[in-house]
Amino acid sequence: MDLPTQLVLGAFTLVTIMLLATAAQRLLNVRFGRLRTFLAALVAYGLARPLLEPIMGALGPVDVEQPPPAAALGLLLLLVMCVVLIPMVILVLAEALVPPGSVPGPLELVRSVRGRVSRSRRYSQITRIAIRHGLGPYLRGRGERLEDRTGKVRLARSLREALDDGGVTFVKLGQVLSTRRDLLPAEFVEELGRLQDQVAPAPWERIEPVLAAELGGPVDEVFAEFCRTPLAAASIGQVHAARLHSGESVVVKVRRPGIRSAVAKDLDIVRRLAATLESRTRWGRSLGLRDLAEGFATAIREELDFRVEAANMAAVTASEGGGVTYPAPIGAMCTERVLVMRRLNGRPVTTASPEQGPRLARDLLDCLLRQILVEGVFHADPHPGNLMLLDDGTLGLLDFGSVGRLDGSVRTALQRFLLAMNRQDPLGVTDALLEVVPRPEDIDEAALERALGQFMARHLASGMDSARMFTDLFKIVSAYGLSIPPEVAAVFRALATLEGTLVRLSPGFDLIGEARAFAGRHLAERISPESVKETVTQELAALLPMLRRLPRRVERIASAAEHGRFTMNVRLLADERDRRFLTGLLHQVLLTVLGATAGVMAVVLLGADGGPQVLPATSLFQLIGYNLLVVSAILVLRVLAAIFRRPRSSDDDGSGGGGGGGVRSAGA
C-alpha cells in the first residue's frame, strides 16, 4: 500500500473515530472528557468488525454489492446503530466503574506524581530531623518512659530543637503547644515557650536581597540607618531596627527567604492528614478537622503576606485602648515580604517583675475580650513572643499576621454566652452556644443543658484551675456533635493561647474571675434600661411602616371574606431550579418508558412468524425488531448515563436528566 493510500486511510479512520465519539456523546447527552470519549470511540472502532460479524451471520448471507432493495435502508440503519452503540456501552460502563476524578488524567497524574515525590522528600526530611535530635524511638513508639525531671527536660529540649529545624509550620505547632499546660508537662511548656522568641535568625546575606528587591533600592539608600543584627527572629520573619531619613525610629520585619514553598508542602500534608482523620475517626468528624485545617492554612498564608498584616494592624489599631499599645505601619514601605512600622521601645514581656504581672495580665485580658466581644476584630495569636513590656510599663502587642473577625450576630451570641456564664444560667448558656455553632437536627438539648450546668459548677463555683476549662468545653462540644465554625474556633484558639500567656505573666491568675468581672463591667451595661429603651425605639422605628399598612390590609381581607371573594393564590414550582428538576425527571421517566416499549416491541417482532422475506434468513418483522432492540438499548444507556453521573457532577443542579438540561463534567 503506497503512502497516499495510507494517508487517506488514516484520515478516514480518524474522521470515523471522531464521528463515533460525537454521536455517542450526543446520544447519551452527557459531556464526558475528550480523552475518555476518544478512547471509547477508538476501542469501538477496533471492536466493530468482530462484534458485527456474528450479527451479520445471524441475518444470513448478504450480497454486499447488490443488497435487496427492501432491506438496504433497515440493514444500513442497524449497522450504524450497532457501531454507535459500542462506544456508548463503553462510556456508560466507564462512568459506573471508573467515575470522572477517580482516575487522574495525564496532567493530573504528572502533578500527582510530582506532589508525591515532593511529599516523600518532606516526610524523609522530617524523619531525619527527628532522628538527628534523638526522637526516632518515640516515632516508632519505643521511647522510654520518663519519670524524672532531667529526662523530661532533655526530651523537651530535643523536641524544641527538632520543631525549630522543621520550619515555619512546626514552629507554629510548638508555639501552640507551649500554651497548653493542660496537655503537656511543665518541662515541655517551658522549653517550647522558647520558640516564641528564640528562633534562629536567617543570615544577613539572605535577607539583604529581599529588602533591596521589595523596597526598590539598596538598604543604605532607603534608610538613614539600618542594624544588620536582628532584634528578634520568629518562625516567619525577623525584625531589624532602622531609622528613616526623617529621623523616625522604625522596625523592619522581613520574611524569611524561601519559606513559601516549604510552608505550602507542610500545609498540604496537614490538609491530607486532617481529611484522613475526619473520614476515618468519629472525633475527627465531630471536631471538623478538615475545616480547622483549612482555617489554619488560611491563617498561615495570610501571615506570609505582610500586606495583610499591615491591613490587620490598621483594623485593630482602630479599637486601641485599655493600656495596650500597637505599632503603626508605614504604608508606603509595606510589601508582601517587608513590613515597616514605627518602633515601640521596650523589652520582652517575660522579663516583667512579679509585681507587674497581675496588672499586665488584667490589661491584656481586658484588651482581647474587648476586641472579641465589642469590636469584632481581634488578635488571634497572643502568645508571649508577640508581647512587649514598654518603657512606660504598659503592654505592646505585636505581630498582626493572624487576626480574627466576627460579625455582629456572633458577637451578640458570645456576649450572651459570657453573661449567662457569669449568672451561672445553664439554659442561657445552652441557647447562646446553639446560636454560636450550627444546630444539629437531633441534638438532646436537655442533656446538653445538664452537661453545661455541670461544667459551670465545676469551673465557676469550685475555683478549679482554668487550664482545663477550654479542654472540658471542647469535650462537651464534641460529645454532642456540635461543629464549631472556623471564626469561632479562632476565638477559642486565641483564648487558649491567652490562658497560657496569662499564666506566664502572673502565675495563679484568676482567668475565670477576671472574665466574669469584664462581663459585669462592659457587657451588663449593654442591657441597662437605657440601652433596652434605645433598642426598642430602633425596632419600633423599623416596624412603623408595616404597622401603618396593617389596618388597611386587615380591612381588605375581612371585606373579601365577607363578600365571598376571599381567595388564596399558591404558585407551585415558582423556582426555576425546581422546574428544571421536574423537567429532567419527566424526561428520564419518558425515556425509560420509551426504551421499555421499544424493547417489548422488538421481542414481539423477533418472535413473530411470517412476514416478507427481505434477507435469506430474516423477515421484515425481524429486521425491524433488531432495529427496535438497538433503539431500546440506546435509550436505556442514555438514562443510565444520567443516573450514574448525577451524584458526582458539581454542575448538576437537578436538571441533568436524560433529555433536558444534560449533565456536564470536565473530567477525563
Automatic annotation (TrEMBL):
**One term of GO molecular function:** kinase activity
Give the protein name, as stated in the record. AarF/ABC1/UbiB kinase family protein
Region (Disordered) residue ranges read 648-668
Pfam families xref list: ABC1
Keywords attached to this entry: Kinase, Membrane, Transferase, Transmembrane, Transmembrane helix
Bias kind Gly residues: ranges: 655-668
Species name: Nonomuraea phyllanthi
Which superkingdom, per the lineage?
Answer: Bacteria
- Does the UniProt entry include the keyword Protease? no
* Transmembrane spans: 6-23, 72-94, 589-608, 620-641
Q: Which residues form the ABC1 atypical kinase-like domain?
A: 194-429
Lineage here is: Bacteria, Bacillati, Actinomycetota, Actinomycetes, Streptosporangiales
Q: Which family does it belong to?
A: Belongs to the protein kinase superfamily. ADCK protein kinase family.
